[in-house]
Amino acid sequence: MNARTDPSRKRLTKNFSLHEFTRSQTATRLGIDNSLPEHMMLDIQRLASWLQALRDAISAHYEVEAPISISSGYRCTKLNNKVGGSKNSFHSKALAVDIECSILTTEELFQFIRSCMRFGQVIQEFDGWVHVSLNMDANQSENQALRATKVPRKFRKPKTVYTEVVNYAPS
Length: 171
Known about the structure:
Layout: H1 18-22, H2 25-30, H3 41-62, E1 68-72, H4 77-82, E2 96-101, H5 106-116, E3 121-125, E4 129-133, E5 144-153, E6 156-164
Parallel strand pairs: 3-5
Antiparallel strand pairs: 1-2, 2-4, 3-4, 5-6
């Protein structure tokens, strides 16, 4: 199969392909098929369109191209379990991505998303990447912003703690 006939190379938007959402070094190493099920195609298309809008907004704001790289996109259940993902992870629903932007720090990207985009949840994770998920239904909170940090514990692995980031009205 070549790039033209491989379904994973399908272009979803001007700057994002299906392959970017489904590729996984862990899946490759463990022989896990992380192909997107056909019934999730509309969700991944919605997520890709959201990312394209984010990229376009950052590029316009800073007047320079703003490539966004996806470090984790869709994860099949088996892959999600192997990487220690939440049992209810939106990655497994094709509605979440972990991203970085080459022209912004993690904190700048987090703040840009908070101030300029609509989302279900955005998490600034360990000053390393930003997790974004879109709303699946009306029951999920809208525009929830969190910061993930590791808290040391005696004789055990550090614990991940999520702290809500609230908007303060200027005084």
